[in-house]
Each structure stands twice: as C-alpha cells, then as structure tokens.
Amino acid sequence: MSAPSVISVIDDDASVRVATNNLLMSRGYVVHSFASAEEFLASSHLEETRCVIADVQMAAMSGLDLLISMRARGYQAPFIFITA
Questions:
Q1: What are the C-alpha distances in Å from 41 to residues 26, 67, 84?
Q2: Which residues pair with 49 in a beta bridge?
Q3: What does pTM read for this prediction?
Q4: The sheet that has 49-55: what strands, in order across it?
Q5: In DSSP terms, which residues pair with 34 in a beta bridge?
C-alpha cells in the first residue's frame, strides 16, 4: 500500500483553507495549509507536495506568481487554482 499523496493548500482566506483541508483529509490525503505563497515557499513541504491548490488572488504573491516561481525552480507538480 502506498503512502497518501500530499496536497498543499495556499489561500489567504482562513475559512477556505479549513474547508478545503477538511474535504481533502476526508478523502485520505495528507494536507498542509498555508496563508500565503511566501509561507509555502519557506516551508519544508515543497519536495513532498504532489499537488498545489492555490487562490489566484492573494495579497503579496498571487497563485499565478507562485506557479511561475515554482516552474522556474523545476517544480512540476500540478496546480489547481481557486477563485471567488
């Protein structure tokens, strides 16, 4: 049996983070949640993350900016964008 996939959720809205986190955990995923793209980039979870779910519009660094930054670093995991 393989280990569950790790998904990182990045959203500056706490209620969205909690709801997404709870949904994914109920389906058996390991989830790490972050309030900003910068917080995610500074975390120790980059290498283990197999999918990123990110808000498109965040204060300092948008979800799209995060994708561009991660691709520039060679990070190829899929990104799913959410927006209001």
A1: 25, 11, 23
A2: 6
A3: 0.92
A4: 30-34, 6-10, 49-55, 79-82
A5: 10
